[in-house]
Amino acid sequence: MKKPILALALATSAGLAVTSFSAQGKGQVPGAVDASRVAAGNYALDPAHTLVQWSLSHFGFNDYFGLFGDIEGTMTFDPADIEASSFDISIPITSVAVPSEGLRDHLLRPGKDGAEPDFFGPDPEAARFVSTSVRRVGDTSAVVTGQLTMNGNTGPVTMLVDFTGAGQNPMNEARTVGFHARATIDRTQWGIDYLAPVVGSEVDLDISAAFELQ
Predict the structure, then answer these.
(1) Would you put residue 41 in left (φ > 0), alpha (ψ -120 to 50) or beta?
(2) How far apart are alpha carbons 96 and 106 in whole angstroms?
(3) Residue 25 DSSP one-character state
(4) Using CA of residue 36, residue 176, residue 98, residue 92, what is the dihedral sign?
(5) Is the C-alpha dihedral spanning 197, 199, 204, 208 positive or negative?
């Protein structure tokens, strides 16, 4: 009997949270592009709502897309001093998601007969991006430069970051800040050169991130 009672309690709690949110918000979106809503401090990524999309050319015919999730990281941020901000982000390679099960297996399988894997191999370390500079270029945008360590190699990456919203998350009451970032990297600089450039060397990254104030 305990499991049904627990399930009922959890469902009731979730229902009350949604009802409270609906009554309180009255259709208003909790987040807004309003810098006055952003508090200075230390933030942590919300891994359930942060994604990195990657895309590259498939033999010159079309672009192929995939995603990384379960991303963790921290941000130190002060809206009064944007250029003092810093980021430290960790992206688990094994979280890669693609529609093709065969391709996912190829991305994470070991090399044949003891050779190096074509892509990441079965037990890759998480990719890590650590910012080195933040330069404000607009009212809601900045250029963030840093070092990306991936596949045993480290190299510079520059991305354009746009502030997309801030406010209080109605589900957990966390003060949240959102960003959208874009960058392009040459995968061969990180030792991922399988079929390059027939399969595109340039990889476009499209990042949607939510940070919660700690």
Answers:
(1) left
(2) 11
(3) H
(4) positive
(5) negative
Q: Which tokens belong to 133?
A: 């500079």
- Residue corresponding to tokens 């970032």: 181
Contact of 135 with 147, CB cutoff 8 Å? no
The two three-digit tokens of residue 181, written as one number: 């970032």
Q: Please, what CATH class does the domain formed by 35-213 belong to? A: mainly beta
CB 56 within 8 A of CB 187: yes
Written as one letter, the residue type at 76 is T
Q: Which two tokens stand for residue 11?
A: 């469902």
pTM of the model: 0.86
Query: pLDDT per position in the chain (214 positions), as tens?
Result: 444 444 444 444 445 444 445 545 567 899 999 999 999 999 999 999 999 999 999 999 999 999 999 999 999 999 999 999 999 999 999 999 999 999 999 999 999 988 999 999 999 999 999 999 999 999 999 999 999 999 999 999 999 999 999 999 999 999 999 999 999 999 999 999 999 999 999 999 999 999 999 9
Judge contact between 201 and 181, C-beta under 8 A.
no
